[in-house]
Amino acid sequence: MIDLHCHILPGIDDGAVDLADSVGMARQAAADGIELICATPHIRHDHDVRTAELEWRVEEVNAALGRAGIAARVTTGGEVAETILEHLDEDELGAVSLGGTGRWILLEPAPGPLSDSLAAAVEHLRKRGFRSLLAHPERHLTADVDRRLAALIDRGALVQATAAYLTAADTAATMLELAGRGLIHVLSSDSHSARHGRPLRISEGIAALREVEAVAAYVEWIAQTAPAAIVRGLDVDPPFAPRPG
Q1: pLDDT tens, 199-225?
Q2: DSSP secondary structure, 189-203, as one string
Q3: Domains of the chain as residue ranges with CATH
């Protein structure tokens, strides 16, 4: 499996505290069957992440994983806030694209309900040659979230849900309903540390999707095909259409 959203780089945002923490996260990933992790530090005004440093920071973590004998590997990326897009030039956007291919951007919606500004951000990226993977819809579960997501998918965006929310008691029903309506395309960990918070795991969320009749036939596409295509910079056409309520 591939994790497209993870804060595994040490000491750069609110993710891994140090290199040992990064190694611990990768050890969790390997135990879960995750082979590749996109390092997606926050790219927004409240974090001083320097895009020019991301490549060597990823190399540093991979070297540590090699020394530790951990099979999982890390590639470049970023979690790009919709509010900062206009301040990033083409080289900066390319540096934070998932897999470093210059095609897919993990786009973080502004806090609160999804709004027309997110649609504008998706269109802004499209005009610059990028496609959008929308991060963590579970943070925006308002009454119209399904309609909003469907409209964004129609614009060419895909949706990344955090795997843990598909099994958590207070959010599972809602998230599985979104999945059943064709509004979730990939699962990621959005893990920040091996020492606290969500572990770097996806498999339990994938297993939950197998129980959703409307998407059970597409679980391998969600778990394997789509993430692999995204990190390779390929266009992705979902095999199911959104069905908002």
Answers
A1: 999 999 999 999 999 999 999 999 999
A2: --B--SSSSS-S--H
A3: 2-231 (3.20.20.140)
